[in-house]
Specification:
Radius of gyration: 21 Å
CATH class of one domain: Alpha Beta
Bound molecules: pyridoxal-5'-phosphate
CATH topology of one domain: Rossmann fold
Largest sheet: 6 strands, mixed
Number of strands: 15
Helix content: 40-55%
Strand order of the largest sheet: 3-4-14-9-10-13
Shape: globular
Length: about 500
């Protein structure tokens, strides 16, 4: 079955998967969604015997139907190799009542690597397939982790340029150092005076700025997006849900068909949306537990049916989830209003005009698989401490948000379905917050702190952190939101 992609906001011409990946998103400001959700057609027991690359192929071929077998397998081989510091790519660890799916063994030690290590391959293959001679310009706003993961993926890739904007005062010291030390003539990293939502809103405007886009076209360039709205990111994220399920099947924890709950620390709603698609593809998933930090706009949405971004933006110890506009939620809205682009467009119009919208009772029925929860800063720190005290297992604050939400969900609901918690970052990436939660001294230089954490956790300092020891700072531009376009033009020589 050929799967095409259309906009959430209009019913204009559907495009192929490779075209959707190349363009990033449709010109009407919506997001690409598949015109049909394909069913997993490989037996789960068969998948249980495959390695990560094998599962990746069996899942991704169903959604990226215009890639040939050779093309897709080459992309997968290029992405999931020794860049990952664990042969399994994504190990699954049991601690207490839950399994932790460690999605942080890639080059930037956060789960964004799962998709961003393959996106450059998917995109350059897409350019070749569609005969585009244009240089691809990746423009990205990041809350911290996407930036470096995208830079790591695209740095030095011929035919591409990548520009990343991050909130100057909204990322962890390690995250910032990772980004500003990026080498590669095709890279540019800029701090902005503002938060992530500011950066993301401005980037979205630049993408659809007709004058800029036209000028780029005349100069042989085109924008694409490495943000989680690109289906080239969403698709690879579906893979690890199937992988996690089949590992539990392989070790006898579950029988084929038994449900598994997934708990996802959520910001832009990309990761949990992938779990939703996995369920719709036929993976036996029970609840999708959506965990927020104090920016609990999604929790409130699941409670009340009203999405309201008009509230204070709170800086937390889980900065990659400090988000009030969860872009990918638009795809879920589209699906729960019966795949209606008219309805979806009207909700998104309300969101942009008044900052809020309320879905209908009928639509709320479509959310019955989801459970919302959130963790305060205190609960997050307490969860890090508990896991360490009871199981000598050190988790990062994002994972701790999910773990804390799950602990309370399990206690209050009595639901003992096996649960997999997405472990989205290495504790070393947020070592200050982790050490503080563990009651340790934190007024040490970042890299010494890493050594201390390594002793406590009994795991070596990841290469991504030790490599920062001698890396020189190569990017030091900071600008206001209003000057982002000027910086883009400067980087592109326009
Ligand atoms: C990006 C990120 C998240 C949030 O993922 P979404 O797909 O945006 O919901 C959670 N944890 C970490 C460590 C991240 O980098």
């Amino acid at each position: 079955m050929e799967i095409m992609y259309k906009s959430t906001r209009s019913d204009s011409e559907p495009v192929t998967a490779s075209q959707a990946i190349l363009r990033g998103f449709p010109q009407d400001g919506g997001l690409y969604v598949p015109t049909a959700v394909p069913a997993l057609d490989t037996d789960l027991s068969e998948l249980a015997a495959m390695d990560y690359r094998g599962v990746a192929y069996e899942v991704m071929r169903l959604l990226l139907t215009d890639y040939t077998e050779e093309e897709l397998k080459a992309c997968i081989r290029g992405a999931y190799d020794s860049k990952f510091d664990d042969d399994l790519i994504v190990p699954l660890k049991k601690a207490g009542d839950a399994w932790y799916l460690e999605l942080f063994h890639g080059p930037t030690i956060a789960f964004k690597d799962m998709a961003l290590s393959i996106l450059p391959y998917l995109m350059t293959t897409a350019a070749r397939k569609n005969g585009s001679g244009n240089e691809i310009v990746i423009l990205t706003a990041t809350s911290g982790d996407t930036g470096k993961a995208a830079l790591a993926g695209f740095a030095g890739v011929e035919g591409t340029k990548i520009m990343v904007f991050y909130p100057k005062h909204g990322v962890s010291p390690i995250q910032e150092r990772q980004m500003v030390t990026t080498a590669g003539a095709n890279t540019r990293v800029i701090g902005i005076n503002g938060n992530f939502d500011d950066a993301q809103t401005s980037v979205k405007k630049l993408f659809t700025d007709k004058a800029l886009v036209g000028e780029m076209e005349r100069n042989g360039m085109q924008f694409s997006s490495a943000n989680s709205i690109n289906i080239g990111r969403l698709t690879p994220q579906i893979v690890y849900y199937v992988y996690a399920y089949t590992r539990l099947l392989a070790d006898g924890t579950i029988k084929k068909g038994d449900p598994v709950n997934f708990v996802v620390p959520t910001g832009n709603f990309g990761n949990i949306l992938a779990a939703y698609y996995a369920k719709r593809m036929g993976l036996p998933v029970g609840k999708l537990i959506c965990a927020s930090n104090s920016n609990k706009v999604l929790f409130d949405f699941f409670e009340t049916g009203e999405y309201d971004r008009n509230r204070e933006f709170i800086l937390t110890s889980s900065p990659s989830m400090d988000i009030l506009i969860s872009s990918n939620l638009e795809r879920l809205i589209y699906h729960i209003c019966g795949d209606s682009s008219d309805l979806c467009a009207s909700f998104m119009k309300e969101l942009s005009e008044s900052g809020k919208y309320t879905i209908t009772d009928k639509m709320r029925e479509g959310l019955s698989d989801f459970v919302g929860g959130y963790a305060t800063e205190e609960q997050t720190a307490e969860e890090i401490r508990t896991l360490y005290d009871e199981y000598s297992y050190v988790i990062d604050p994002h994972t701790a948000v999910a773990s804390s939400v799950y602990r309370r969900y399990r206690a209050s609901s009595g639901d003992t379905t096996p649960a997999v918690i997405d472990s989205t970052a290495s504790p070393f990436k947020f070592e200050g917050s982790v050490m503080k939660a563990l009651g340790q001294k934190t007024d040490l230089p970042d890299l010494e702190l890493a050594d201390r954490l390594s002793e406590l956790a009994g795991v070596p300092v990841p290469k991504a952190v030790s490599d920062l020891r001698d890396a020189p700072v190569l990017h030091d531009i900071v600008c206001d939101r209003e000057d982002m376009e000027k910086e883009v033009r400067r980087f592109l020589g326009l």
